[in-house]
Design brief:
Blueprint lengths: L6 H17 L11 H14 L20 H14 L1 H20 L2 H13 L4 E4 L15 E5 L2 E12 L6 E7 L9 E7 L5 E6 L8 E12 L10 H37 L1 E2 L2 E2 L4 H29 L5 H27 L9 H10 L8 H15 L1
Parallel strand pairs: 1-4
Antiparallel strand pairs: 2-3, 3-7, 4-5, 6-7, 8-9
Helix pairs in contact: 1-3, 2-4, 3-4, 3-6, 4-5, 4-6, 6-7, 6-8, 6-9, 7-8, 8-9, 8-10
């Protein structure tokens, strides 16, 4: 880690790993019947451990003067190794609040960021719509001026923390004729009249997720972030910070999968010896470990490039997310194969990892979108 991380980062990693080992590994089964309760409980435990402080700037109760991609990657990799929902809840505090850190005025930052860092306020990021996923510029939710306020109409889909968030950063068009250049960002508090939770959506790997409807939802103009028409810019800058951390979460899942595969290979006996003594299993483990190491290095390099404001940070971040998420899928799949029938038993660690890892290749830019970003950056700088 030393080429890309300093001693503070190494100390943080050791602290998070020790916490995960004693707090998350101790629970081998996961209660998936009340995900909202577990999400809130994990968030409070993350706050008590001081980890949420890495999602906000020091001025508002954070751990450092400004957010660091390296901190986020270290935390997500270690948390994902222990529990997918713990990783999700941590990441969403950063994702949902960073637009305010990035583009909010002093009053907005003071109103929302301390609560995020202390775990007293749950954040959410609301951009995806039924007809606007990868093509975020085509969103249909509108925010039209009415005197000194904006009135929101539209539907948001696949919104993490829907129903439990205290506030949402919502992206809506305040000037539809300008298309992408007419999209603005707003902070909408959960209790605002006209903001309706229409559906709670169940996922392969459960976490609080749902559909929001804005039906004449009136918000003050003080809810606007930065200026009208800067919403897409704010969204992309936010995703630029978080993208490599998705790769870090993939590394965490893959690390746990490899650990479980090695453990099982050393204890499971067939044909008179442990399966780890068979060359076929050894080849699998070697390939998994190599894939994992390559993914880890790409993520570390991308995080360092972002923090150093390197010219090629966007390309490195997309490469890290693309490779790490695809590699993690392969590693988890091989770990399950090594476990055989035990690997597909509901509630087992490998079965849970198999469900947990899949979404990473989709959210915050699919693997296909990452390839487009990489190619465009290459062609632009050649």
């Amino acid at each position: 880690m030393l080429p890309f991380f300093d001693q503070d980062h190494l100390a943080l990693q050791a602290r998070v790993r020790a916490w995960v080992d004693s707090n998350l590994f101790a629970v081998e089964s996961r209660d998936e019947t009340d995900i909202e309760w577990r999400a809130r409980d994990l968030l409070q435990r993350l706050a008590d451990a001081g980890f949420l402080q890495y999602t906000v700037p020091q001025e508002y109760g954070g751990a450092r003067a400004q957010l660091s991609a390296r901190d986020l990657c270290i935390l997500r990799a270690e948390l994902a190794r222990g529990d997918a929902l713990a990783d999700t809840m941590f990441a969403l505090q950063a994702l949902g609040s960073y637009p305010i850190t990035l583009a909010g005025d002093a009053l907005q930052k003071k109103a929302y960021l301390p609560g995020v860092g202390s775990g007293k306020a749950i954040a959410a990021f609301a951009i995806t719509e039924p007809e606007a996923g990868s093509d975020v510029a085509s969103l249909q939710t509108t925010a039209m001026r009415r005197g000194t306020e904006f009135v929101l109409h539209g539907t948001k889909r696949f919104i993490s923390n829907a129903g439990i968030a205290d506030f949402y950063v919502v992206f809506a068009s305040s000037d539809p004729e300008k298309k992408a250049k007419g999209v603005s960002a707003f902070v909408v508090e959960a209790h605002t009249p006209g903001l309706i939770l229409k559906e709670k959506t169940r996922l392969l790997s459960p976490h609080p997720l749902g559909v929001l409807e804005f039906a004449g939802c009136a918000i003050p103009e003080s809810a606007l972030l930065r200026a009208e028409g800067t919403g897409i810019e704010i969204a992309l800058e936010t995703l630029d910070l978080l993208r490599c951390s998705v790769g870090a979460a993939a590394v965490g899942f893959a690390q746990r999968a490899l650990e479980e595969a090695i453990r099982y290979s050393k204890t499971r006996r067939q044909f008179g010896r442990t399966i780890g003594e068979f060359q076929g299993i050894q080849f699998k483990l070697a390939e998994m470990a190599t894939d994992l190491e390559a993914a880890r290095l790409l993520v570390q390099q991308a995080a360092w490039a972002h923090d150093a404001a390197a010219a090629d940070a966007k390309r490195k971040s997309s490469m890290a997310k693309l490779y790490a998420t695809e590699a993690a899928q392969r590693i988890v799949d091989q770990a399950l194969q090594i476990h055989g029938g035990s690997g597909v038993v509901a509630g087992s660690i490998t079965e849970r990892l198999y469900r947990d890892v899949r979404a990473l290749r989709i959210y915050e830019g699919t693997s296909e979108i990452q390839k487009l970003v990489i190619a465009r950056e290459l062609l632009k700088t050649a």
